[in-house]
Write a structure and sequence with these properties.
Number of helices: 4
Helix content: 55-70%
Bound molecules: zinc ion
Distance between the termini: 85 Å
Strand content: under 5%
Mean pLDDT: 78
Structural class: mainly alpha
Largest sheet: none
Order of helices and strands: HHHH
């Protein structure tokens, strides 16, 4: 009889642990918010992957003006196409850079 009560205690304890895992731990894991990228991570990602690639051949001044208008939302420090267009316009004396872009 004592052996039988020990196995009942072991099985009952195991069932309680499984129930605790299913109804206590699992919901807490599932409801944990997913890790979202912080603004700092997004900035680094943006710097590593330029939104527009630099041209293989240098822009003309007219092309550079169109590029600057089309990429008005881009950051010239991260967008290689806009930086190249800005450089062409600066060399042509059509814009005066407030600060040096590399
Ligand atoms: Zn861009």
């Amino acid at each position: 009889m004592p052996a039988e009560s020990v196995s009942i205690a072991v099985v009952g304890g195991s069932v309680l642990v499984v129930l605790w895992l299913i109804f206590g731990v699992l919901p807490a894991i599932l409801e944990r918010p997913f890790k979202t990228a912080s603004p700092a991570d997004e900035t680094l990602e943006h710097l590593n992957h330029p939104c527009h690639h630099a041209p293989t051949v240098s822009y003309t001044a007219a092309q550079a003006q169109r590029i600057m208008q089309r990429l008005i939302e881009c950051d010239a420090t991260a967008c290689h196409a806009k930086a190249a267009a800005f450089r062409v316009l600066a060399e042509a004396g059509m814009v005066k850079p407030a600060k040096d872009l590399r």
